[in-house]
Design brief:
By secondary structure, the protein is mainly beta. Helices cover 8% and strands 59% of the residues. The chain is built from 2 helices and 9 strands. The longest helix has 9 residues.
Length: 182
């Protein structure tokens, strides 16, 4: 397994399943990342690995329950001798749409910093630079939707938007993950 993937699994993090219980909580998650740009899908592959950890601070405010969190994510897309690694640190806020019950849908948004590392060979598509090795950091945001089950397990999707691409690649992405809250 590639060292950067192992690093991502051990160190990095993510949002899902933000505490619909009381007090400080930790969430771990794993899932897939799906590139938003056709050029990225053609150059790399259609899906990638996503891993994460987050710390959340639930706030019970009637009539809504807000769940701010600090999340760190890692995902990797690779294929055709190319790869892009994305690390992010974001402040996210989720809002539960129902009160009580074991099935709790939520929506949210986040903002943070995204660092991407792009490495390409000769086989690229669209406007992506061939034979490139580029590191870039930029601000970005997320739109979040998910479902919490029994205050521990979650399924979450988010759309990540970076303010700029890297090496001609649109690195916006959709991620889907399963989470567990401690």
């Amino acid at each position: 397994m590639n060292r950067s993937i192992l690093f991502g699994i051990v160190v990095c993090a993510g949002p899902v399943g933000q505490a619909y219980g009381q007090g400080l909580g930790w969430t771990i998650r794993a899932g897939g990342a799906f590139p938003g740009g056709t050029d990225v899908r053609n150059t790399f592959q259609n899906t990638g690995l996503l891993v994460g950890v987050g710390v959340d601070f639930p706030i019970d405010t009637a009539p809504f329950q807000l769940h701010p969190s600090v999340d760190i994510d890692f995902y990797r897309l690779e294929g055709n001798g190319n790869h892009v690694d994305s690390y992010s640190a974001c402040f996210d806020v989720r809002m539960r749409l129902t009160s009580g019950g074991s099935f709790q849908p939520y929506i949210g948004a986040g903002a943070g910093v995204f660092h991407r590392m792009l490495t390409t060979g000769d086989n690229t598509a669209g406007g992506i630079e061939p034979n490139a090795r580029i590191n870039e950091t930029s601000p970005g945001g997320k739109l979040i939707a998910g479902i919490m089950f029994d205050s521990r397990f979650s399924i979450e999707a988010d759309y990540r938007m970076m303010t700029e691409g890297i090496g001609g690649a649109n690195t916006n992405s959709l991620t889907v993950s399963l989470g567990y809250r401690f």
